[in-house]
Amino acid sequence: MWWGVAAALLANTLYSLGFVLEKRALTALPQVSIRQPARLLRLVLGSPLWIGGSLSLAAGFGAQLVVYRTLPIAAAQGIFVSGLVLLVLLSARLLGEETSGRERYALGAILAALLMVVLSLREGPDGGETVGRAAPYPLILLVCVPSLAAGVWLYNSAERRARHRHRLPTTGVEYGVAVGLLYGVSSLAIKGVSSRLTTNGIGDALLGLLRSPYPYLLLFTGAFGLVMSQAALQRCRASLIVPVCTTVTSLYTAVLGTLSFGETLPEDPLRLALRVAGTALAVAVLLSMPRHDPPAPPPPPSAQPPIGSKELTPP
């Protein structure tokens, strides 16, 4: 159990550092677009800072495999959410991003909502924590395929609206929800991969993994998530888009992952009420968050000589 907690805290640090490094690298690159994925990959692969951030994210992926083998999905999501605080601190320190008072209150409400969901899920057959090991493949596909389609559609809709002239700059809430759906599917696939690795023998584990939908879901979410997240990170503040993305991913994984992998539903009315109220609160906060950043203040007028005075010019 403690190994899982340590791995979750390490994954938090690696993910937060990776996102901040990628954001800092993207601010120095020309504008990227999901319509030109080859150009996007060429630009980011030429940035050592971006490569360092991607390696940090890859190491966080490895730590997440350890987490899902030792902790239930609900408990893991509760620890992953704590990484939002570290991310906001790193964004303020390394990126100079500042969150508004309304956004800070929203992040606090999101943390409270996720805590309510996590508390509602901490229930096992004997009152303790249980770790699910397998899920029916048809159920996984039934959950994941519509989620992937919804994420791609939502992202494309946000892209079309952002191209309108005279539109206020977006905060990235829509982008965060779209990418969060993809990462939620990826999180379920990571959970499935970790369960397949418990098979005796490397050959049997690899064969069983290839027969499952998990590696193919990871390939899809990895390819589309990479392009979509980089374009969104370049346009929006990491201190807002990543918490929104993390919120959607955590809720998606905690609720649907618990159902899919059979980690029991709460029978206690209080726990059931916590789950419903926490989910409703998180959705309400996401819907109420500002969709646009305030317009930038006009630059101060340059110093002009007073009317009637003659400007002195050197000979």
Overall outline = globular
Question: What is the makeup of the main sheet?
Answer: none
Query: Helix content range of the residues, please?
Result: over 70%
Strand residues, percent: under 5%
Rg, Cα atoms, Å? 22 Å
Number of strands: 0
Poorly predicted runs are 308-313
> Would you tell me the structural class of the helices and strands?
mainly alpha
Task: List the helices and strands in order.
Answer: HHHHHHHHHHHH
**End-to-end distance:** 81 Å
Count the helices. How many?
12
Q: Look at the structure and give the mean pLDDT.
A: 78
What are its keywords?
315 residues; mainly alpha; 12 helices; 0% strand
Structure description:
By secondary structure, the chain is an all-alpha fold. Helix 7 packs antiparallel against helix 8. It is globular and about 50 Å long.
Please describe the topology of this protein.
Blueprint lengths: L1 H26 L9 H9 L2 H23 L2 H9 L1 H13 L5 H21 L15 H26 L10 H24 L5 H9 L3 H22 L2 H23 L8 H20 L27
Give a quick rundown of the structure.
This protein is mostly helical. It contains 12 helices and no strands.
